[in-house]
Amino acid sequence: MHSILTWIFNGALIALAVFIHYETLYTLATYLPRLSRIPPRYRVLLGVLIILVAHALEIWAFALGYLAMIKLELGSLFGMTTSDLLSDCVYLSWVSYTTVGFGDIAPNGDLRFLPGLEALTGLVLITWSASFLFIEMQKFWPMSRHVVHHPDSRDH
């Protein structure tokens, strides 16, 4: 039987990542339209950059989760590991979240469940970001039917 602590950690990490992402997208949806002094195309660019930062924070949250679980002896890493455990945890988190999954570093013990859960979470959050940006581009870009395009405008 797997440790209840493993499932608590896994659930908490997923909830934290979803919370970070929700708050980021909600804040962007609220404040991007208010930035009327910034040309629309740069508002979309700002949104992309902020969302990338949110993804990085989520990846780091999972990486710190890996590290905590290893310190609590709920598993370990093997394969092409380095002497820097934090670096290995961050690397594993990046390749899991983005679903690259190289497989050169692998977890064992109860820790082995987290990369799969992280990959699923990353896939959902990345597609949520893409959907959000698509909607924002429709609002702000002159090519959208919702925005009146002026030929002499430099916003496109």
Helical content class: 55-70%
* Gap from first CA to last CA: 58 Å
CATH fold descriptor: Helix Hairpins
Radius of gyration: 19 Å
Beta-strand segment tally: 2
Please, could you describe this protein's structure?
The protein is mostly helical and 156 residues long. It has helices at residues 4-31, 40-71, 85-97, 113-140; strands at residues 75-79, 105-109. It has a single domain (4-138), classed as Helix Hairpins (Orthogonal Bundle), CATH 1.10.287.70. A two-stranded antiparallel ribbon has the order 1-2. Helix 3 packs across helix 4 (113-140).
What does this entry show, briefly?
This protein has helices at residues 4-31, 40-71, 85-97, 113-140, and strands at residues 75-79, 105-109. By secondary structure, it is mainly α. It has a single domain (4-138), classed as Helix Hairpins, CATH 1.10.287.70.
Summarize this structure as a short list of keywords or feature phrases.
156 residues, Helix Hairpins, 65% helix, single chain, elongated, mainly alpha, 4 helices, two-stranded antiparallel sheet, 2 strands
Summarize the SSE layout with pairings.
Elements: H1 4-31, H2 40-71, E1 75-79, H3 85-97, E2 105-109, H4 113-140
Antiparallel strand pairs: 1-2
